[in-house]
Amino acid sequence: PKYVYSWGAGKADGNGKMKPLLGGKGANLAEMSRIGLPVPAGFTVTTEVCTHYYANGRKYPADLQRQMELGIAKVEKVMGVKFGDAKGFPLLVAVRSGARDSMPGMMDTILNLGLNDETVVALETATGNARFAWDCYRRFVQMYGDVVLGVQKRAGEDHEPFEVVIEEAKAEFLGNAHAEDTDLSADHLKEVIARFKTLVKDRTGHDFPSNPWDQLQGAMSAVFGSWMNDRANVYRRKYGIPAEWGTAVNVQAMVFGNTGSESGSGVAFTRDPATGEKVFYGEFLMNAQGEDVVAGVRTPYPVADLKKQQPASLKELERIRGVLEKHFTDMQDFEFTIQDHKVFMLQTRNGKRTGVAAVRIACEMVKEKLIDWKTAVSRVPADQLEQVLAPIFDAKAVKAADKIATGLPAGPGAATGKIYFNADRAVEANEKGQKVLLVRVETSPEDLRGMIAAEGILTARGGVSSHAALVARQMGKVCVCGAAALHVDYDKRTLKVGKTTYKEGDFLSIDGTAGTVYAGEVPTAPSEVVQGLIQGNKKAQKSGTYQNFVQLMAWCKKATKMVVRTNADTPEQTAQAVAFGAVGIGLTRTEHMFFEGERIDAMREMILSDSTEAREAALAKLLPFQRKDFLGIFKALNGFPATIRFLDPPLHEFLPHTKEQQLDLAKKLGIKVEVIMNRVAELHEFNPMLGFRGCRLGICYPEITRMQARAVIEAAVEAKKKGIKAKPEIMIPLVGFAKELEIQVAAVHAEAKAVMKETKTRVSYSVGTMIEIPRGALTADEVAETAEFFSFGTNDLTQTTLGMSRDDSGSFLAPYAENEILPKNPFASIDQTGVGQLMEIAITKGRQTRPNIKLGICGEHGGDPDSVKFCHKLGLAYVSCSPYRVPVARLAAAQAAL
Ligand code: ADP
Ligand code: MG
Ligand code: MG
């Protein structure tokens, strides 16, 4: 079998499509060579050799040595030099690892391999450049000693041993331990190398290998060995890369960026990876080799500066930039070296980019006819699309800002404002026109008003699925949660971080894309997309960001099969989601409407009532509020359907829990505080998640269901009179038994009938259920007798299937991920094998009874790209997610359908 694939002089055995066999780096080196780009000759030892190596007790296939000798011979021929030549210019090689995808944790590259005490002299003679020759040798011994021979920092040592030798030499020869490497003369370097070799002998007990073939063997074994090192194993597990893939080894002729001031080394992107702008972007250093550019020891210059120093090289790089884009039809991230004014290409790959850049590049490449629209849709990572909607910090201001803490990036974007620790005070401040940040240890439904008033939310505790994070995402608010360095004192209204104390009203800024917290006011602006779509800002609509976004969404519409709805509780949220392309509401949580203003009082009165009559009287007060809310939502939807879920949470959530609040409420309602205390005690539950909630409330208090049905139907009637088409879909939560649904549906129909009779108006509506309990899924054929639609409530379905409470899972989810029990957070991305299987059962059984049953999903998972793709596969009609996730879900749904 063929183990060695050569390239060079405009030819190659392999090509860019052979990444599994040649690794990403090797495949693209072959491809670049084929298309005539200046690539130093070399060869790839395939990933199959890696697999063989591990399958056979770390031994190589018999024919490998012969093939490698042929490979070296070809390189020698192309380059006109000989490996190990002690007379003429010796061939030196780079040994470079290369898996399918670039993988941190793999072995570092070894440069200048082939040097020893004789060949270095030959190199010096051939080039007439002593400093250059000994600099190469110094680099080689150091890299090889470190990476292959393992001469590294030991426990208790503060610095790398080779670095210690260099610093001592600099102090001794130059009088400054931190002088630049380039200040060391050839003679200095000779002495450093001698000391390096002594170090190697002391540490390993062996002499530094001088035979180039031994060196090559050693380097290759080190690359293959690194495939199974701890760092690589951890990385592979995290990203699900199978060990069988193996890595390839690339052996390539060296070109030299360190021959002097006429040479250099750099990295570049064919477009700006941060903004996507079509400009040449990158940096370089003169008289530098390898990692000097990214190591941060010397500060590199922008590529444009080459114009002054080597205009011809810049022109050549510009030409290459064009060739690369045309050939690979994607933005490339590449590495180059200039040797005495000649440019060489050392690597290229598709460049990583921000969400903003991804959208811009995809759209512009379609315009440039480099790619078609389907490719454009498939290229933008769905998850990153949210970045295009997020408010933004001024980049310069961030650099200057004082970062005081980090937490989890829970709601992307930038926000700045005066800090408040209490929802009411935040609202008050906001009403006075202040920009506010709500800072809490963690948030609860009572903080909702404060969260609405705030630009951003910052919590000291809680994960990315905490209440704060969930609500923030739904509202498109910036949020950083779980910033453990924050010490919030509610009584003193202060926030302590380290030694600094911030008082209520002080400015802080948070970056919910990065999860960082800054002191003071860092300037921000809403994204142009939001300004254009939601605020109708004409200027923003002319911006490239806006137009590209709209274009991308139009393509998504063309491709998609499954549509996207939104989870929204207010007309504002609904209107936003519709602007983002939602075609209906998949979930309105009616209880969120009960927390605001006077409604919470009526709600509490209802809960405290001790008779049906008293409850009905209190409910009657809530009715007009609900009706108004629904009407507002119907208006915002303008003919799109709205799935309205009836009351779901346990009632105790609505009652005040501190003595002070209870006394307040008692006074307000004119009842004894003991009544409230007793009721709170009565409603106390050990497992509220599995307790008195969902349709269990409606079964015990049918008057609640009836009031809500009345509000929905009356609103629909009113809408009809105003010429607005309303399509309510009433959803009964937490159904596990067909009978539960039958009882609730009967109550809904009875009330609807009554309303239509009273108003002498007919409106249409449907009633269905949420599938969110395993029993409901398993008996879906029975449930479908009455349910006209199923909506998968995957939040609760995940909790009940896994037997894990989302709110309590923070303490063990991290070790569960580390131990690979859970590949992903199941509350963020659907557990496809477990929860997914229940969904499949429910779909199959539901369709047995009702072949055309409408199917959707309304859990938080509806905005997760992987889950969206899974829902497409299951054949759901729609997914539903928070407004700011709508574009993400639309993109994921389109990608699934391509
Ligand atoms: P990584 O995968 O970490 O980027 P590379 O194999 O690309 O590692 O090597 C790192 C650096 O070494 C390159 O960016 C380049 O500067 C230098 N390098 C690699 N191969 C050669 C070569 N043939 N000639 C000169 N420099 C090289
Ligand atoms: Mg590289
Ligand atoms: Mg639920």
From TrEMBL:
Domain Pyruvate phosphate dikinase AMP/ATP-binding: 20-56, 63-300, 312-369
Pfam families assigned to the protein according to its UniProt record, in alphabetical order: PEP-utilizers (PF00391), PEP-utilizers_C (PF02896), PPDK_N (PF01326)
UniProt keywords, alphabetically: ATP-binding, Kinase, Magnesium, Metal-binding, Nucleotide-binding, Pyruvate, Transferase
Chain positions recorded as substrate binding sites: R589, R645, E772, G793, T794, N795, D796
Binding site for Mg(2+): E772, D796
Role, per record: Catalyzes the reversible phosphorylation of pyruvate and phosphate.
Protein name: Pyruvate, phosphate dikinase
PEP-utilising enzyme C-terminal domain boundaries: 547-896
Catalytic reactions of this protein: pyruvate + phosphate + ATP = phosphoenolpyruvate + AMP + diphosphate + H(+)
This protein's encoding gene: ppdK
Catalytic site positions: H467 (tele-phosphohistidine intermediate), C858 (proton donor)
PANTHER family given in the database record: PHOSPHOENOLPYRUVATE DIKINASE-RELATED, PYRUVATE, PHOSPHATE DIKINASE 1, CHLOROPLASTIC
